[in-house]
């Protein structure tokens, strides 16, 4: 889903078709890397394993998700990953990497620059007290514009709202081939942010931590 070929590719294409969802316990599951991502998110809603609903309708597979640590609407996949099982092409062996070994960051991981690993499965760990996340600006706007009572929101509602927003702002890659948005939102420190703010009355922003601010690249463009 991230490639739009302009001509016939002269070479070998390997398509991942590893399928399967294995429940380890009430709050953790192992998912084969070839499973469709959006279908899996829908599965979690049905099985009351909440937290991934903000990542609805992202095209691709479960195994592709950790590579760039996919994120959207105030959530990231790495927050719910316990471990990743890979095939090591160098040694020909199976390797298990726990979340703290994956180098997760903003749209990055060790898998992004290392082609030695083929992700076989991802094990997710869900929280026992999942909070509904509607912190992201456009998600808040969608809620307010439709006069939705925030107190009555469910995780399924967030799944539906995110899907609705994505359908409005991004063309369906199956109908209109595209690689989606490939830029990263810049993160700057508070001092730089205050200087930039001098030229604008209001800049949409999200505090990453106490010292750094994220500005939407789409707004800058």
* Cα-atom radius of gyration: 19 Å
**Helical residue percent?**
10-25%
Strand content: 15-25%
Mean pLDDT: 90
Please give a structural write-up.
The protein is of the alpha+beta class and about 220 residues long. It is built from six helices and ten strands. The chain starts with 20 loop residues before the first strand and ends with a helix. The model has no long low-confidence stretch (mean pLDDT about 90).
Short description:
The chain is an alpha+beta fold. The chain is built from six helices and ten strands.
Question: Notable features of this structure?
Answer:
globular; 3-stranded antiparallel sheet; 5-stranded antiparallel sheet; single chain; 221 residues; alpha+beta
């Amino acid at each position: 889903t991230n490639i739009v070929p302009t001509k016939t590719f002269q070479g070998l294409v390997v398509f991942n078709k590893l399928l399967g969802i294995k429940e380890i316990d009430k709050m953790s599951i192992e998912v084969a890397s070839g499973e469709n991502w959006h279908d899996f998110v829908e599965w979690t809603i049905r099985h009351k394993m909440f937290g991934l609903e903000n990542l609805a309708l992202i095209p691709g597979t479960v195994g592709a998700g950790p590579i760039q640590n996919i994120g959207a609407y105030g959530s990231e996949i790495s927050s719910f990953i316990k471990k990743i099982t890979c095939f090591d092409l160098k040694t020909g062996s199976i390797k298990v990497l726990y979340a703290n070994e994956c180098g997760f960051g903003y749209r990055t991981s060790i898998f992004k620059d290392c082609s030695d690993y083929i992700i076989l499965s991802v094990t997710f760990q869900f929280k026992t007290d999942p909070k509904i996340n509607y912190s992201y600006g456009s998600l808040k706007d969608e809620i307010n514009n439709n006069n939705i009572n925030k107190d009555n929101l469910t995780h399924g509602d967030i799944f539906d709202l995110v899907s609705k927003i994505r359908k409005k702002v991004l063309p369906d890659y199956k109908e209109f081939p595209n690689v989606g948005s490939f830029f990263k939102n810049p993160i700057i420190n508070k001092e730089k942010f205050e200087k930039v703010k001098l030229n604008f009355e209001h800049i949409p922003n999200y505090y990453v931590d106490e010292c750094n601010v994220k500005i939407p690249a789409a707004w800058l463009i």
